[in-house]
Design goal:
alpha+beta; 9-stranded mixed beta sheet; globular; 32 strands
């Protein structure tokens, strides 16, 4: 039986149809009808997807593009890496057909096999130049032979769909098509209400022990906490007070559980998530697993983006340019502040306790403090360079840049605790004021700074200059101490003490990163070296010269004894090298612990 929704306009300008052409070959087939094309109509496929700041060249997966007007074939000429010109007549319906190979398990592109399908519009749907604001329909067909096993889930509004969700959906414009991923397959699904807003959670790839009821209950708790964060205690769909109304009238979580992966991508009315299958809550589990806490943090992060980046967003993102990089220096705010609130709101919602929250915050702080690149680049610069650095990690990235996620979160923490220390207000007040002033729309750094000044009663230009645009250390320990948190020293891991990041696998130690200024760099270590062993000279007490094979860094104390120097034996491009290594003194890492419960709860709420 077909399910109907609100009537669509009588004539829609663009009509997309997606078929699962060949599950085993991972091929989608797409048909696009343009009701009123221009002469020499140009079409393009995006080179990136908003929220993931890297040119990914989706067009490399597109093949076999043909065009017809009526029964007449129309010539198609590729003009550049992602654009085609159609030699068509103006005003006469034009039909394009092509295929897209879908073999990327990530949340950013498209996937299709006999077990599951998934796609983003930016990977499958050509953009018609001159008609970006035209209304669209998207018809999604069930794969042949899947009967009632496969279903379809998307946040697009249905026009006419069957019980399994296959059929016709509508979008106001291309931006909505691009911002509405689609999940296909025999997934688990549940629906729930959050303060009057309908939500749905779909999970692909879950094992038999998956506890869906717990996932939904905890997700609902997160959503309610965030709606009240932004809109107050009276937050509810349809509220008379516009400030109390959430900006979305529906929402879909799409989670793909796999063997080993993690990540998420935000959309206006949905999010696509991926996690380890073992991170899902399990029936009968007495204790919340660390992986499940991480998953809840991911859910919290992507849902917070419903406000912070999808609506309240950088002025440079007022209208996306899908054909090239879209630069902004504000990712420290939109990603970093979201990273601050994702775990904080888990704590406020009662899903984690103080100790767990401080453990998560400790991890964030150490990630920044153990990255030499924090002295080389500010978070504003790192935001701008995301296109060439953050999403293209290499052996030198930790020395050249800092994460706008982690340091941005610490900047948010420092600003929040500074506001609280001065007794005026909190960062919560700044976020809500910025939302109200902007109407939930684009903002620039001047508007962000003005909101801090309005709430804090003074200019925060010095803090912005040092913490956002500078490369000095953040005043973490002092601010945390004033809010009931002690910063303790703990012994650093051996790799960190040596200035290395390594992979220990199958009895072999492979250097992945050599950190700037560390003992390993001074000795001459290089990324991709295989550290085979150490040589020790003759020493006190008649000790003879000796050499030892190592299979992990924790072997070093056993063989070094009290030696302060050794020769590291490494293999580099099949050449055996002897590197003089000075063993550094013991180093420490940070651990945050509760010190004053009353002060701590005043902050954590």
């Amino acid at each position: 039986m077909a399910r109907r929704a609100a009537a669509a306009p009588a004539r829609l300008a663009l009509r997309y149809r997606v078929r699962c052409a060949d599950l085993h070959a991972h091929l989608f087939e797409v048909e696009l009808q343009i009701d009123a094309p221009a002469a020499q109509q140009r079409v393009t496929l995006p080179v990136w997807i908003p929220g993931s700041y890297l040119v990914r060249e989706f067009a490399r997966q597109l093949s076999g593009l043909t065009a017809t007007q009526g029964r007449r074939s129309v010539p198609v000429a590729q003009q550049d890496k992602a654009g085609w010109q159609i030699d068509c007549r103006a005003g006469e319906p034009l039909v394009l057909r092509y295929r897209v190979c879908a073999y990327d398990h990530s949340v950013r592109t498209a996937w299709l096999d006999a077990q599951r399908g998934f796609f983003n519009g930016t990977s499958l749907c050509l953009r018609v130049e001159g008609q970006a604001d035209a209304p669209c329909t998207l018809q999604i067909d069930a794969p042949a032979g899947t009967a009632d096993r496969w279903r379809c889930a998307t946040a697009l509004r249905p026009v006419k769909v069957d019980r399994q969700g296959f059929g016709v959906y509508r979008a106001d414009d291309y931006d909505e098509i691009a911002d509405s991923p689609v999940e296909l397959g025999p997934f688990w699904s549940a629906e729930f209400d959050v303060l009057g807003v309908p939500h749905r959670f779909v999970v692909a790839g879950a094992a038999a022990g998956f506890d869906g009821e717990r996932l939904v209950a905890d997700t609902k708790t997160i959503c309610e906490a965030q709606m009240r964060f932004w809109h107050g205690a009276k937050a509810r769909a349809g509220a008379r007070d516009a400030a109390a109304r959430p900006p979305h009238d529906r929402y879909v979580f799409m989670l793909n559980a796999v063997g080993d992966s993690y990540g998420g991508l935000e959309h206006r009315h949905s999010t696509a998530l991926i996690c380890n299958r073992t991170d899902l809550p399990q029936h009968g589990a007495a204790k919340q697993a660390e992986g499940y806490t991480t998953l809840l943090g991911l859910i919290s992060h992507e849902y917070f983006h419903t406000w912070n980046v999808k609506r309240l967003r950088p002025a440079e993102f007022t209208r996306y340019n899908y054909g090239q990089e879209n630069y902004t220096r504000l990712l420290w705010f939109f990603e970093g502040f979201t990273s601050y609130y994702d775990d904080l709101l888990l704590r406020r919602a009662g899903l984690i306790d103080d100790a767990t929250y401080l453990k998560l915050l400790t991890r964030t702080a150490n990630q920044v403090l153990q990255t030499p690149g924090r002295h080389a680049q500010s978070v504003a610069e790192a935001s701008f360079d995301a296109w060439i650095k953050y999403y293209r990690p290499d052996e030198q990235m930790p020395n050249a840049t800092v994460s706008y996620y982690t340091k941005g979160a610490l900047v948010a923490l420092c600003l929040d605790l500074t506001l609280r220390s001065e007794g005026h207000a909190t960062l919560d007040d700044v976020m809500r004021l910025l939302w109200q002033r902007s109407g939930g729309g684009p903002v620039d750094e001047a508007q962000i700074a003005a909101a801090f000044e309005a709430v804090g009663g003074r200019s925060f230009a010095p803090e912005f200059r040092r913490w956002v645009h500078g490369t000095g250390e953040l005043p973490l320990t002092g601010l945390l101490a004033a809010h009931g948190v002690a910063a303790l020293d703990e012994p650093a891991q051996r790799a960190q003490a040596l200035g290395l990041r390594v992979e220990e696998k199958n009895g072999s130690v492979t250097v992945k990163v050599v950190l700037r200024g560390g003992a390993a760099e001074k000795a001459g270590f290089s990324a991709n070296d295989e550290w085979l062993g150490i040589e020790l000279p003759a020493g006190r007490g008649g000790r003879t010269a000796e050499a030892w094979r190592i299979s992990r860094l924790d072997d070093l104390p056993l063989y070094l004894g009290d030696a302060k120097k050794c020769t590291a034996l490494v293999a580099r491009d099949r050449r055996l090298l002897r590197l003089p290594l000075a063993i550094p003194p013991a180093q420490t890492t940070l651990r945050l612990a509760p010190r004053d419960a009353a002060l701590l709860h005043g902050w954590l709420g």
